[in-house]
Write a structure and sequence with these properties.
Number of helices: 5
CATH class: Alpha Beta
Helix content: 25-40%
Distance between the termini: 43 Å
Strand order of the largest sheet: 2-1-3-4-5-6
Structural class: alpha/beta
CATH architecture: Alpha-Beta Complex
Largest sheet: 6 strands, mixed
Shape: globular
Radius of gyration: 18 Å
Length: 215
């Protein structure tokens, strides 16, 4: 049976942008998002062979360290022409600095070597694990199919957002608002992470009660 979360939830990431994104994704649910800076969280080695395993490593380490439920995700871009690469190594393609420019340049270079200079089919994957201090966990996964397209579109966002266009859309992820990507206006979430979070929220969280207004 799926376990519900009440109260505080630790986000197991050192990326402040991701914490802000998660706060927005879960703004309509009755949960207090705890910033990892409140704790001296460990940075475990991500030695898993799948996205789910890596997310689980981070979530369980944070849950043990804080005594609270903890949430972590692992995600990546899988390109058909590159036999699924960069995959689990998505962040590493940006080099030691996790540079977007370096990551996109490498992706473009590798695809050109295989005769796909203008791009090709690809998909994003996001695995989300929520872990409790007693070892219980819940896993949710989101995917979005589309294509990698060169040259890159304007915008920054996540590393490969400027070159990824989801199916049925003319704009790259970097050209879309967070609300559009997250389905915040009642539509279907477009991003892989938002789809995983929608599944998690529906299973483990309760909607936030609307604030009362008095005349």
């Amino acid at each position: 049976m799926t376990r519900k979360i009440e109260g505080r939830l630790v986000v197991a990431t050192q990326n402040p942008g991701k914490v802000a994104e998660i706060r927005e994704l879960l703004a309509d649910y009755d949960v207090e998002i705890v910033h990892p800076s409140e704790f001296d969280l460990p940075s475990p080695d991500e030695t898993g062979l799948t996205y789910a395993e890596n997310a689980g490593i981070k979530a369980h380490a944070a849950a043990r360290a804080t005594g609270l439920p903890a949430l972590a995700d692992d995600s990546g871009l899988c390109v058909d022409a590159l036999d699924g690469l960069p995959g689990l190594a998505t962040a590493e393609w940006g080099g030691p600095e996790r540079s977007q420019d370096a990551g996109i340049a490498r992706l473009e270079r590798e695809m050109a070597r295989r005769g796909h200079a203008t791009g090709g089919p690809a998909h994003f994957v996001s695995a989300l694990v929520v872990a409790w201090p007693d070892g219980h966990e819940e896993l949710f996964e989101g995917r979005v199919h589309g294509s990698v397209t060169f040259p890159r579109a304007p915008g920054t966002m996540m590393m490969f957002d400027p070159v990824f266009r989801p199916e049925g859309r003319e704009l790259a992820f970097s050209q879309m608002s967070e609300r559009e990507k997250n389905g915040a206006d009642g539509g279907e979430p477009l991003s892989h992470r938002a789809r995983a979070f929608r599944l998690f929220a529906e299973a483990c969280l309760s909607p936030r009660e609307p604030a009362c207004s008095f005349r």
